[in-house]
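Protocol step 4 of 6.
Sequence for EamA domain-containing protein (Rufibacter tibetensis) entered exactly as in the expression construct, tag removed. Do not edit the line below.
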Amino acid sequence: MIYLLLCILFNTLLVFIFKLYHRFGVRTFQAIVVNYVVCLFTGAAFAVEDLRVLVQNLGEPWMLASWALGSLFIGSFYLVAVAAQKIGVAATTVAMKISLVIPVLFSLLMLQNGLKQYTLLNYTGMVLALVAVVLTSRRANLEDAKEATKRAWVLPLVVFLAAGLGDVIINFTNDQLLQSHQAGAFTISTFLASAVIGVIVLLYSSFAQKVPFERKSLVAGVALGVPNYFSIFFLVQALFAFQNDGAFLYPVNNIGIILLGTLGGILFFGERLSRVNWLGMALAIVALLLMSYQEIRNALF
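Step 5 output, structure tokens:
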């Protein structure tokens, strides 16, 4: 459970940092590239043994999966930034968070590794989770975001698919390709792929398109990189802790991020919640209880 809580915490920090990017006028892609370089060095600093495992397993199938995931990460990170500018933060958040249905269905239908017999209450909780995500993410400017989505519906669709596909790759790799002692090496390899691809694109934009690199992008990238590394590391560890039961883990993780993010928005950014937002939070709590009532019952009794 501690890995799940840490995963929620570090993922929420990422949302807060992106909020600050907009406030300070940071060049998002530059900061994202620096972020992945920092992720790489963070992994190397905190897990020297994982570097040895990485070198010893060059060419393993999970290495290919990590590079596919790394390519997806940097692309989806940039898509999220563009989507927030083009269709609004609310619609982008909804597109990202409802993507939890993809790894949940993949875990249940393809991997078939649920550790418990899912009941009607569990499935009801999953449905309520999707409703809660939409209601909690809804903001006053959602109508504007909807209008923009009508004109550029491909963008939120791609964000939705990219976010869900990333979780599917992690879940499949954990279940079929990785052993627990390789988790850290997998994380480092993923960020190495993102860093290499990002640096290549950044060099092209700097020399071919004459886009100057800003010093504040370096600071912003460092601030993002450390929590980003641990958000993925603790997600992988949480999957191992729950024996790859993604059907339980992903809804709890995503809703936990929404709840903590909403609370942080109120306390640190002065955000105000509408009645619809509060209804979404209430449904999120109910959904959490319904999806995990067996675990809660076993823990208490």
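Step 6, annotate. The chain has one domain: 2-294.
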